[in-house]
Amino acid sequence: MSKRPSTANTLVLPPFGPVRTRRVFEDICDQIRGQVLAGILRPGDKLPAERELAEQFGVSRTAVREALRSLEIAGVVKLQKGVKGGAFIQGGSPGVLTQSIRDMVALGRISLESLTEARLFICDIVVRLACQRGKEADFRALDDNIQLTEELERMQENLRRTEAVVDFYRLLANAAHNEVLSILMLSTAEIVRQVLARLAPAPSAGLFESRRRLVQYLRARDEEKAVAEITAHLKRIHRYILRQEKLRNI
């Protein structure tokens, strides 16, 4: 991995190369992403000032500004204003993926059928890994979430209850101990939550019993029963979504 030369106060980066392509902002983005991939730039690092970047790339400050905005939208950098502001490398945000998929669902480029089908496959893998890798602390966190969700429902705290329902999938993915699957699991769960908020709240009958059975099967390392339990629940939710969507379009 490349070394990271630095001074006492400022990180000194290898100079970027001149840009000669027609869409220069894309080349700027590629070079910055390249240094992130190489480990030269890491989360929290501050990029050189806009004027200095323009000189290194051999482009206008407008092109640099456009590139930084593009990287901000992609979640690679965060732009901060003020005396101590600038462009900082981000640690990565699952929200960017969620927003991208949600936009494609809204635009009709991804169908609800495709979304729900993909979610079933992701949950299948996550549950199997949770059976194999989950620790008691993971299962206790799921138990606590179920109890909290029940309490919020009794209190009719609908917004917090919905957040807790989605958080169950985050905790389940944590038990699988795979960062990529955690991002995919949480993204699909959040998009389904947003779809339900647009259509109508899903019925909660049998939800808590199903989740308790799921955790029981996870503790027993019974992959087949655990997968069957969550698959049956998700299929009920997905049928409900598709039915509500059809009624909405009549």
TrEMBL record:
Residues 145-172 form a coiled coil. Keywords: Coiled coil, DNA-binding, Transcription, Transcription regulation. Transmembrane segments: none annotated. The keyword DNA-binding applies. Residues 22-92 form the HTH gntR-type domain. InterPro entries: GntR_C, TF_FadR/GntR_C, Tscrpt_reg_HTH_GntR, WH-like_DNA-bd_sf, WH_DNA-bd_sf. PANTHER family: TRANSCRIPTIONAL REGULATOR, GNTR FAMILY, UXU OPERON TRANSCRIPTIONAL REGULATOR. This is FadR/GntR family transcriptional regulator. It comes from Ferrovibrio xuzhouensis.
